[in-house]
């Protein structure tokens, strides 16, 4: 199963600097690898037609539909309270703001990782290290405030499979350029993290210990769960958000 990775775009036609297909097409040229179609308030026929239009702008299988109805395809992304889709859906993700409580889902989208202008006051922000600690071994995407190369790289170093971006690209007068900057920063940091991990494995295999006092390369070890996160209850609990 291929799970979303790299730069993932969430749609919001109300924030878009142009028509939704226009923004998506240019963002894809800039490096967006997956698109999550939201727009859940649209009438069914209109939303399904929009899904067909956006699928034509992406490689096969790269459009994910928010909600349990895949609108004629086989990839969905669920809100915390959404039921699982009917059988036959190949890719299922779920949004969470706490420790993932999943069943058959393939990945989780954790938010807010950073403070976000799209939802001001929404939080508290998890931070990239905090999100990684919550996710554990579940493939995860970082959502919320990933609007700069530094934040994109920080998520990659923490172990995110991808970054999910909404406002930074939807509002941009140049979605292609904005997508390129974020995708490049995330990709470079993720590649560096992978190379560091391989180097550590080779050191262990050769029996060579890392010299005392030297730092482990950034992103190799998953950060310990911050004390503030240890009190979080299961998803949906009344614990801190």
Descriptive overview:
By secondary structure, this protein is of the alpha/beta class. The chain has one domain (6-230): TIM Barrel (Alpha-Beta Barrel), CATH 3.20.20. It is 34% helix and 15% strand. The chain has 7 helices and 8 strands. It has helices spanning 20-30, 44-55, 128-135, 149-158, 167-170, 175-206, 227-230, and strands at 6-10, 32-37, 63-66, 75-78, 91-96, 107-110, 140-143, 162-165. Strands 1-2-3-4-5-6-7-8 form an 8-stranded parallel barrel, surrounded by 5 helices. The protein is globular and about 60 Å long. Residues 209-241 have low confidence and may be disordered. Condenses 4-methyl-5-(beta-hydroxyethyl)thiazole monophosphate (THZ-P) and 2-methyl-4-amino-5-hydroxymethyl pyrimidine pyrophosphate (HMP-PP) to form thiamine monophosphate (TMP). It comes from Paractinoplanes durhamensis. Pfam families: TMP-TENI.
Strand order in the largest sheet: 1-2-3-4-5-6-7-8
Q: Mind describing the biggest β-sheet?
A: 8 strands, parallel, barrel
Distance between the termini: 31 Å
Low-confidence stretches: 209-241
Overall pLDDT confidence: 85
Estimated structural class: alpha/beta
Helix-strand sequence: EHEHEEEEHEHEHHH
């Amino acid at each position: 199963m291929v799970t979303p990775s790299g730069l993932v775009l969430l749609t919001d036609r109300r924030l878009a600097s142009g028509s939704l297909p226009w923004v998506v097409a240019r963002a894809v040229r800039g490096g967006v690898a997956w698109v999550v179609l939201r727009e859940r308030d649209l009438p069914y026929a209109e939303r399904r037609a929009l899904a067909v239009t956006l699928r034509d702008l992406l490689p096969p299988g790269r459009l994910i539909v928010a909600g349990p109805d895949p609108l004629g395809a086989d990839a969905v992304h669920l809100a915390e309270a959404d039921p699982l889709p009917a059988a036959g859906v190949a890719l299922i993700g779920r949004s969470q703001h706490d420790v993932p409580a999943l069943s058959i889902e393939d990945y989780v989208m954790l938010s807010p990782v950073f403070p976000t202008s799209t939802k001001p006051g929404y939080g508290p922000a998890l931070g990239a290290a905090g999100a990684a600690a919550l996710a554990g071994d579940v493939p995860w995407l970082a959502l919320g405030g990933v609007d700069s190369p530094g934040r994109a790289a920080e998520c990659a170093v923490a172990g995110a499979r991808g970054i999910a971006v909404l406002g930074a690209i939807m509002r941009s007068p140049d979605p292609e350029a904005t997508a390129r900057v974020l995708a490049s920063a995330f990709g470079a940091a993720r590649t560096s993290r992978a190379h560091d991990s391989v180097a550590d494995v080779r050191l262990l295999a050769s029996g060579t210990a890392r010299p005392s006092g030297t730092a482990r390369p950034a992103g190799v070890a998953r950060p310990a769960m911050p004390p503030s996160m240890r009190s979080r209850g299961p998803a949906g609990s009344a614990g801190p958000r």
